[in-house]
């Protein structure tokens, strides 16, 4: 989300509990074990589908459980795309 606003997102409630914005270098740092936490801003989806603004500190534990190799591959592909 380079220039987009959170209001642009319509999430599938059964799939996503919210969306946060975090620097790509921080995500990369999590999976390279160089960063333990990052402060993020975003929104959570409320009980009736409303967007509730949030600011919190996240870490690897807050990501969907996948093998580390999955995240490394995703990071590498994003880096290739951004070149």
Task: Kindly summarize this structure in a few lines.
The chain is of the alpha+beta class and about 80 residues long.
Strand order of the largest sheet: 1-2-3
Mean of residue pLDDT values: 87
Taken as a percent bin, the fraction of beta residues is: 15-25%
Number of strands: 3
Main structural class? alpha+beta
How many independent structural domains?
Answer: 1
Q: Please tally the helical runs, counting DSSP H or I stretches of 4 or more residues.
A: 2
Which secondary structure elements does this structure contain, and how are they paired or packed?
Layout: E1 18-21, H1 24-31, E2 38-45, E3 51-58, H2 68-82
Antiparallel strand pairs: 1-2, 2-3
Describe the fold and architecture:
This protein is of the alpha+beta class. It has one domain. It is built from two helices and three strands. The protein has helices at 24-31, 68-82; strands at residues 18-21, 38-45, 51-58. A three-stranded antiparallel beta sheet has the order 1-2-3, with no helix packed on it. The longest helix is centred in the last third of the chain and has 15 residues, at 68-82. It starts with 17 loop residues before the first strand and ends with a helix.
């Amino acid at each position: 989300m380079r220039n987009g606003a959170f209001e642009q997102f319509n999430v599938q409630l059964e799939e996503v509990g919210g969306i946060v914005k975090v620097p790509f270098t921080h995500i990369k740092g999590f999976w390279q074990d160089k960063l333990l936490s990052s402060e993020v801003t975003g929104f959570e989806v409320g009980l009736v589908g409303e967007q509730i603004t949030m600011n919190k500190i996240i870490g690897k534990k807050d990501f969907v459980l996948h093998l580390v190799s999955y995240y490394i591959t995703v990071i590498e592909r994003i880096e290739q795309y951004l070149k």
